[in-house]
Structure formats: structure tokens, C-alpha cells
Amino acid sequence: MLEISELYQRFGDRVAVDKLSLAVNGGEIVGLVGRNGAGKTTTMRAVMGIYRPLGGSITWSGHPVALSDRLRFGYMPEERGLYPQMRVLDQIAYFARLHGVELPAARSEAQRWLTRLGLEGRELDLVVALSHGNQQRVQLAVALVYQPELLVLDEPFAGLDPSAVDSLSDVLRAETARGTAVLFSSHQLDLVERLCDRIVILEQGKVLVSGTLDELLARSPQRLRVRVATSADWTANLKGVEVISKDPLGVLLAVTPGMDTQAVLREAMAAGLVEQFGLESGGLVELYRQLVSN
Amino acid sequence: MNPLKSIRLIAGREISERLRGRATWILTGITTVIAVALIVGPTLFSGATKPYAVGLVGPAAQALAPTLVAAAKASGVDMTTVNVSDDATARSELTPKQPSGQGGGPLASLRGGSATLDVALRLDTGSATIEFYQTVSPTLAAVLRAVVEEVHQRDVLTQAGVSPSVVGALQQPEPITTAILKTAPSDLAGRRIAALAAGILLFFTLGIFGNAVASGVAQEKTSRTAEVLLAAVTPRDLMTGKVIGIGLVGFAQMAVTIGAALLANAIVQSSLVPSEVWVLLPAILLWFVLGYTLFAFGYAAAGAMVARQEEVQSVSAPFTVFLVGGYLLMYATIASPDAPWVRVVSYIPPLMPALMPARLALGQVAIWEMPVAILIMLASIYGMARLAGRIYATSLVRGGPRLSWMSALRRR
Asked: Does domain B52-171 have CATH number 1.10.8?
């Protein structure tokens, strides 16, 4: 298990991470969410030992992370992190060997991952000759080839097409099924919702909220969806009720504390046949907007 | 992982990637061809040396033949005399003629035409004419003038009634003893050429491979590859592996170039470079290893400080200045190898790789100097490695604008 406790880091006058704490268990996917400068990359780089934090601690299986532990971590920085003029197969095998895999196994595992990630036939291509998406697949292969116990992925889905997103998601799920702990960051909240077991929302280096998706959704603003079989604007008579949107699926109303939902129902029934009336969660996006704006 | 294994892996990647690329092979080919051409070219074009041919026009000049030959020999000029009947014939024999037909071989047209005479001398009563087609040895010209002037003085004194014995005594030079306190090596010219060649080769090789280290480090930093690498290896091992890997490629390139030049020299039996120069080969390679190691660590630190690849040249400028400075001082060293200031300056570590091989080639290094110089160099390399290692470790993963040397030296 990876445990980050009261992590603190400052660059000049700017506090990048401010007493951040989170944990990632084996077989779990934890998503780090936050806008640019929230502290996601700084946190990940601290885990990977790229710099020594000014405060706090990072432990793995109960002891401070050492170089020998990091040999079992797979890392994917936000930039490519690859040698552009090196052949794909050679590069993956090289990083495997640096992590202690012997040469024959390094090359066979590299080949296996290339096949699994849909890059068969590109073994002898230079990395620079690949598309953005394929370069990211190579990067992922570099992180996975030595069967890491922890995956630290900084914006792994950035710039990927939907099929590549699905492919990467499948790989991460398979890794967690194997017992690997996964920590990744992303701006794509719908993806985080679909993939993560737990989510941590950062802002200005602090944890705003963390928990399972269900726990976070429970905190998300509620909405009331009403669909009435009429073309008339029946919401005009609603007083003190915010209309979020109107579309063919119905009207979406913001639910506030003390709101009289029965009054809304009566107004809808007076306008015509009520086809749908029910509460739904605003989702992670709404929760994020609410937290960040506060 | 075992540090030695990490370093070996990192160095191995540097070697294999450089050998796989064309740049290394092209560069090696260029330096080898240039080195071989410098050896073989002059031998092909020079032909056998021959004595200067001096045409003597008219009886008065022809009577001076023994005197001229003796005077030339005393001055170290190899000369023969040819009796020429008249001025027109002399002028014709002075003019070079292009070879005709198949004679002379394919290089004959490149060599240009040859003339029968190099200079023509005519003596008249009260005057003399020395005619050249083009400039010949200044020493030969001086010898001819001196003889003509001596004849003129004798004629003037004789006409003035001075007795022949007095004239003879006047023209007999004072016995002068010439003593040489320090004899120059008989193969001085060849040693100078060897020193120059070694200096040029070292300058270019150190510069090219030192900059290769800086560029490689900068590329790893700016692409964030360094972050992935540092998850598995320490900054010290990463830097050391890179320096060793690139250095081995440079060493091999130098060895190939020098070996090809020596082989060419042995084949054509060039008179320019004495065959004994091969004993300098180990010293040249040693100073490449020492010099490259010193500069490479510095260049590695410089590469870690950049924010963009384009900044490599400017950040590594201090090391380039020392390389260029050593190269320029190498010429002064060849000109005055035993000057006291040369001996002192050649012990400044960044200048040693340029100056020590030159002094060694010219035979100006005492037996005790080489071990002392090597020790100084090793100590400097150790200090540079420590300093550079600190800068490298703190700068390699630090983002933001380019670092200054002072900020890079501050502990993180």
C-alpha cells in the first residue's frame, strides 16, 4: 500500500502541495482530479522520488520509499518520457532491464506488451515516427513491462481517441485484478467516474474531498428531472427554483435545501401528463464545480 | 539494482545508439580520410627532392662555378651549376614546361610543369644579373649575391692596386667557432607535425563528444525521460554511464583515426612524420581519456541546467572557452616548447589535454612531469565529478527557466 501523509512542497513562494494525505491500496484505482497547478504532478513526482519533499512522508508497505521500492513502480510522466530516436522494442526492453529484468525476458515481455497494446509490427520504428496515441502506448508499455506493484500515471488519457481510452482502461483494470495499485491523474471527470475506485479532488495543493464514487456522488448537488407532455413553458410559474437546462429529456431543476418538490409536481401536473419526475445526482462534474468555486 | 550493472546498461545504450546512427560513422570516416590524406598527400605530390639548378650565362659567371658550389654547400643549400650559352637560352630553361603525352602519370598535370633551371646568373663588367622564374630559397639567393659581391670587391681592390695577398686576406673570413648549447632534435619538423596533428585531433574530438554529453543530458531533461530513468537509477549512475558510454565511442573513433594515419605513414614512408611517432600514441589516447572525463562531467552538469535544448551551447560556453583556449595555446607551445610560461600553463587542468601532448611530442617533458600531471588531472576529475554530480542531481528534474551556475550549486 502507498501512503502519503501530510505531504508539503513549496517552489519559491508558491506552495505546490499543502499537507496532502492519501492512500492507494493494492488492486485499487485512485484518481487524482484537479485543475492545472492543483498539485497532482508534484504529488506524483514526490512518490517517484524525483525530488525530496520539504515535509510529510511517503511510505510503501509501511516503510519509507527507497530506490529498491521504486524499481517496482511504473511511472508515466505527463510528457512523453521516451528517447525519440530509439527503436520501440529496444526502448521498452531497456527500461525493463534498468528495473532488473534480464535481457531475454525483457525483450520477450516488451514484445508481449507491444502486441497487447496494438503495436505489433512497430518494433523497429523510432518512437518519433509514431503518432501521439501510439507513443503513449509505448510509454505505458515502458511502465508495465516489468510487472510493477504500483502504477503512477500522470494524465495517461490525454489526447487519446475513444478506442485508445477503452484499451488503456482495460489494461488498468487487468492490472488491478493482478493486485497492482494504480494512481492516475486526469482532467476527464467522466473517465474518472467510470474507472476509479476512489477519487481525490485537489485544489491549490490541498485535498478538497476524497472517497469512493458513491460517497462523492452523495455529496454532489441533487437535481430534479421533470418531463411533461406539453410544449408550454410550465416552469415560468415556479418561484425560487433554478432551471438548469431544458432539452427533449425534460427540464432539469436545481434542488436546494427546503425546496418544495411537491409544489413543483403540482405545477407540472397542471401543465399536462407528467412522464418523468425524479431526483438525480449532479455527478462528479457538478461536485467539482461546486467545490472549486467555493 | 547494482550500480555497476546500471552504469553498464546506460553506457551500453549510449554506445549502441551511437553506433546505430550514421553520424558517428560519417564523422569517423571524415577524420580518418583527412588524417590519411595529410600523410599521403604531400608524399604523392612532392616527388624526390633535387638540387637547385643554377644556370651560368657567359664565361665570367661560368668561372665562378666552384666558388658558388662551395659557398652553397657551406650554407646548407644543395645546388648544381649548368653552363648556358646565352640569355635567351637561360630564359627558356627557366620557364616551366607542361608534360606532354603519357609521361608523368595521372598526377603530373596536378603537379604542374617543371623547368630545367631554377635561377640564372650572368656576370658582366661592373654588373651582374640574377634571374628567377619564381621565388626560390632565400638562402640560395643570398649565397649568389654574396659570391657576386665578393667578386666585385676583389675586382675593385685589384683595380685600385691592392696586392693580391691583401685582397685574399680581406676576403678570408675571421675564424669563427659556432657552438650550439642545446641541440634541437634532428626530427624537429616531424615532431612539430605530430604535436600539431595530436592537438587538432584532441581539440575536435573533445569538443564533439563533450557537446554530445551536454546535448544528451539536455534531451533527457527536456523530454522528461530523466524522470522515468531516475525511478530506477541514481543521478550519479545515470551521469556516469552516459559519460562512459559516449567516451568509449570517442576513444574508438580516435584510435581508428590515429591507427589509419600511422598505417598510412608506414606504407608511404612519409618523410614528414618519423615512424618513431607511434610511441606518442598511448600518450595521446591517455590525454584524450583524461581530458574527455574532465570536460564530460562539466558538460553533463551544463546539460542538466537548460530549460530548452537550444540553450545547451550557451550554458556549456565556459567549457568550450577552455577547449578553444587550450587549442590556441597549443600553437604557442609548439613554437616555444621550453618557454617557462608554457611549462607553468601546461599544468592548468583544463589546458593539460591540449598542451601536454604537444610538449611530449617535442621532447620537452621530464620523466617526473608525466606522473605529476596525471595525478593533478585525476584530482581535478574527482573534484569536477563531485561538483558536476551535485549540479546534475539537483538540476536534472528541476523545471522552470534555465538555471544559473550559482542557483544550480545551491542545495535543494
From this structure: no
Q: List the one residue out of A207, A246, A236, A255 whose CA is nearest residue A34.
A: A207
Chain-centre distance for alpha carbon B49: 23
- B248-262 in b/e form (b: 16+ CB < 10 A) is bbbbebbeebbebbb
Q: Where do the structural domains in chain B lie, given as residue ranges?
A: 3-44+188-409, 52-171
Please give, rounded to a whole number of angstroms, the shortest distance from the CA of B244 to a CA of chain A: 17
Contact A20, A14 (CB under 8 A): no
**Which chain A residue shows the shortest CA-CA distance from B238?**
A98
Asked whether B352 and B370 are in contact (CB, 8 A), the reply is: no
Q: Does A288 touch chain B (CB under 8 A)?
A: no
Minimum CA–CA partner of B223 in chain A = A81
Torsion angle of C-alpha atoms B176, B177, B179, B184, degrees rounded to 10: 60
pLDDT digits (tens, 9 = 90+) for A17-62: 989 999 999 999 999 998 888 889 999 999 998 888 888 999 999 9
Q: What is the pLDDT of residues B317-333, one digit of tens each?
A: 999 999 999 999 999 99
Dist CA A75 CA A143 (whole Å): 5
What 3-state class would DSSP assign to A176? helix
**What's the pLDDT band for B107 if we cut at 50, 70, 90?**
very low
Does any CB of chain B come closer than 8 Å to the CB of residue A95? Answer: yes
- Which set of grid coordinates corresponds to residue B243? 559519460
Name residue A9's beta-bridge partners: A17
CATH 3.40.50 assigned to domain A220-293? The reply is: no
Query: What would the mean pLDDT of B77-88 be, rounded to a whole number?
Result: 84
Chain Cα centroid distance, residue A178: 19
Q: Report yes or no: B134 and B145 within 8 Å, Cβ to Cβ.
A: no
Name the residue among B13, B223, B231 with its Cβ closest to that of A79.
B223
Residue A123 clears pLDDT 70, i.e. is over it: yes
Q: What architecture (CATH level 2) is domain A2-217?
A: 3-Layer(aba) Sandwich (3.40)
Contacts of A276 (CB under 8 A, 6+ apart): A225, A226, A227, A250
In this predicted model, what pLDDT tens digit does every residue of B224-255 receive, in sequence order? 899 999 989 999 999 999 999 999 999 999 88
Which of A13, A50, A76, A95 would best serve as a mutation to test chain B binding (most B beta carbons within 10 A)? Answer: A50
Please choose, from the candidates B284, B241, B223, the residue with its C-alpha nearest in 3D space to the C-alpha of residue B15. B241
Do residues A28 and A176 make contact, with C-beta atoms less than 8 angstroms apart? yes
The residue in chain B having the minimum alpha-carbon distance to the alpha carbon of residue A96 is B232
Looking at mean pLDDT, say which of A277-286, B147-156, B216-225 comes out highest.
B216-225
Q: Which three cell numbers stand for residue A8?
A: 508539503
Domain boundaries, chain A: 2-217, 220-293
Q: Look up residue B270 and give its three cell numbers.
A: 612519409
B78, B48 contact by CB (below 8 A):
no
pLDDT of residue A247: 83
- Does A103 touch chain B if contact means CB atoms closer than 8 Å? no
Amino acid at B80: T
What per-residue confidence (pLDDT) applies to B361?
85
